[in-house]
Amino acid sequence: MSPEDEYEVIPTSPIRRLEKRIEQVESGSYSSQIRKLIEQVIELIKSNQRIIDDSIKANTDLIGEISKVPKKVEDLIIEMREFMKLLKTSAEEEEVTAVSKEVMAPLVDKMTELIEQNKKNFETNQAALTTLGIIEKRLKRLYTQATPTRSATSSGYTGYSRRTGTEY
Predict the structure, then answer these.
(1) Adjacent-strand bridge partners of 167
(2) What whole-number distance in Å separates Cα of residue 29 and Cα of residue 20?
(3) Contact in structure between 158 and 167 (CB atoms under 8 Å)
(4) What are phi and psi of 8, to 5 degrees?
């Protein structure tokens, strides 16, 4: 024995169990479990492929829709330019403004008249509300004076109602 050799005492039963497992794997007794695992992995791969296919389809549809946007923006810009040209043309033409002034003059006069009439109606309504408020206060005061309280009638106090002209 040389001094460099190392020796260790270990139990042989775990080694024997490992040897038996290796023999079983080699003989194929675990094949049903391995097949189930392989089937699960294949199913996982298929579901991942479906997800990828759906993502590709959605991406393609999105690209198609986005490719339409520049054309629509360009059409919008063209229409806005035409509208601006039309607006500038109508602002520059004196005939159109003269006709517009002639046509709009009666409308402006009528609108001014309606505004004045609305102001008068507002003032009348405000005065009516004020008058109604005063009348309400007076009626409440008369009502409280006309209805005797229990303590006043039980103490022998008699009053006179202005509203009915009777004594209570």
Answers:
(1) 160
(2) 11
(3) yes
(4) -140, 145
Token duo for residue 129:
């509300």
Q: Which of 121, 141, 148, 122 is nearest to 133 (CA)?
A: 141
- Which helix (H) or strand (E) element contains residue 163? none
**DSSP labels for 94-160?**
HHHHHHHHHHHHHHHHHHHHHHHHHHHHHHHHHHHHHHHHHHHHHHHHHHHHHSPPHHHHHTT---B
Q: Provide the residue type at 76 as one letter.
A: L
* Cα–Cα distance for residue pair 30/71, rounded to 1 Å: 63
Confidence (pLDDT) at 7 = 72
pLDDT value for 49: 92
Domains of the chain by residue range: 103-144
Q: Is residue 146 within 8 Å of 163, Cβ to Cβ?
A: yes
Closest Cα to residue 62, out of 54, 51, 50?
54
Beta bridge partners of 79: none
49 vs 38: CA distance, rounded Å: 16
pTM of the model: 0.34
Q: Which helix (H) or strand (E) holds 93?
A: none
Determine contact, residues 116/136, Cβ cutoff 8 Å.
no
pLDDT at residue 152 greater than cutoff 50: no
